[in-house]
Amino acid sequence: MIRSQTMAIRNKEFIISAEVMGESKVRIILVEILPNLISIVFGGFLGTVIYAMGAEAPLGFLGLGDATEVSWGSMLYWAQVSSSLYTGAWWEMLVPAIALSLTGGALALINMSIDQVSNPKLKTGPHLKLWKKLNKEANKRRGLV
Prior knowledge:
- By secondary structure, the chain is mainly α.
- The protein has one domain.
- The chain has seven helices and no strands.
- The chain has helices at residues 2-10, 13-20, 25-61, 72-81, 84-87, 91-118, 125-142.
- Helix 1 (2-10) packs antiparallel against helix 3, helix 2 packs across helix 3 and helix 3 (25-61) packs antiparallel against helix 6 (91-118).
């Protein structure tokens, strides 16, 4: 996906004009192409991190992970093996589960916010103001204001 987007950007007019003006290839990549790929690169990176967390935790919970490493999945596995819910030590199961879900949710929200900041089609500023204005006018017509 990154390669196809790079190839699409490479054929844009501002890249061709930079080449015609004699800009170096390194400058074209760093100044012209890379800023247009920020959302795709970071989105792919954060998506991969979320996927890796989502793949490691169930494998660790099933006991298929590395037993010498401490991870949230292995913490859940050892809490289940020691019957922590039956013995009243519920925090051994709850803390890693909450940490895993909060981290995954936070990374997903960061991914969406990077997308909104870097993608001009997703910017909500003017659209939100227009919606508030139209909502205010509709409430006036209904007699709610």
